[in-house]
Amino acid sequence: MTTVFQRPLHKRLRFESKLLERCELTPTVSQFSFFVPENFVFTAGQYVTISFSAAGKVQARSYSICSSPSQKSRISCCIKKVEAGMVTPALFNFPLGMSFRIVGPMGFFVLPKQMAEHNLVFIATGTGISPIKSQIETLLLKDFKNKLTLLTGARYIREILYKERFLALSEARQAAKKPPFVYESIVSRPENPEYSGEQGRVLRLLEKHYSSNEKSLFFICGLKAMVDDIRNLLRKLGTAEQNIFFEKYDA
Ligand SMILES: Cc1cc2nc3c(=O)[nH]c(=O)nc-3n(C[C@H](O)[C@H](O)[C@H](O)COP(=O)(O)OP(=O)(O)OC[C@H]3O[C@@H](n4cnc5c(N)ncnc54)[C@H](O)[C@@H]3O)c2cc1C
User: Distance, CA 177 to ligand 1 centroid (Å)?
Assistant: First the structure.
């Protein structure tokens, strides 16, 4: 077997950071902002590794950057509190100003050069929205010329992340008469009898929006089980392997 080593996209830095801000998005997900030095450069879709002192030892965890590369001096990460997790329950109690060791940027879940000739479809569940938010904001900032579609899934209505932000971006693009940015979310347990949106898994949304006429590129991010299910569905629908890009949060 041959192992292919890819060159890092940017110089990888190792630095002392501080927690600057924490913004609660849902009862179990917050957006954390960390200081980064001026020479920290990343491409939308990349992640950093943060070292924490938790449970009596230093533990490192990876987090995708959800903010745009155009923002300087800070990055934001959208992080889920995993109740039985080793690190995240402690992270949610850390005070502002707390110091962390950060290494990054890392990763290759980035928009490829050939995107200019394609429509792009993004699929995320939970905090898998993080690198995709950064990518979509970057594309919209650069006035991307083709159609964009974002399909997100969550268990409960209250767990849909950045819904207002994406709806606003979609409406702004429509108002400016640009190619559409289609945004739709689906929940598996709405719990509200008045909910009139889509119900089920994100696979269902993909089947609804998939068009075999368009040569789209697909970007998937979330936990392994969902990423594998979406990849299998795309293969069944006839998408070529080289048009599927993904990031998994667990092995
Ligand atoms: C490249 C990469 C990028 C990542 N980016 C993010 C991110 O932007 N936001 C984020 O919240 N996590 C992200 N993760 C996951 C993160 O690194 C940790 O695994 C997560 O925070 C759990 O850490 P913990 O110590 O609390 O749990 P652990 O004690 O390590 O337990 C891990 C368990 O938590 C589950 N888990 C891991 N991540 C999640 C999640 N996001 N939602 C629900 N369950 C989860 C796993 O399936 C596993 O069962 C990323 C992982 C990788 C490899």
Answer: 39
Close Cβ partners of 134 (under 8 Å, ≥ 6 residues apart) = 44, 45, 64, 65, 66, 67, 68, 69
- Alpha carbon distances (Å) from 246 to 57, 164, 188, 201, 242: 31, 25, 22, 18, 11
Whether 219 contacts 246, CB under 8 Å: yes
Rounded mean pLDDT, 222-239: 96
Residue 60: CB atoms within 10 A of its CB come to 12
Ligand 1 binding residues, C-beta < 6 A: 47, 61-64, 77-80, 82, 85-88, 107, 126-127, 130, 223, 247, 249-250
- Ordered by where they begin, the domains of the chain are 13-106 (2.40.30.10), 113-248 (3.40.50.80)
Q: What is the pLDDT of residues 150-187, one digit of tens each?
A: 999 999 999 999 999 999 999 999 999 999 999 999 99
Task: Say yes or no to pLDDT of 1 above 80.
Answer: no
Rg (CA), the chain: 18
Cα–Cα distance between 30 and 159 in angstroms, integer?
11
**What is the best residue among 51, 57, 82 to mutate for testing ligand 1's pocket, by most ligand atoms within 8 Å of CB?**
82
Nearest to 43 by CA among 103, 108, 140, 102: 108
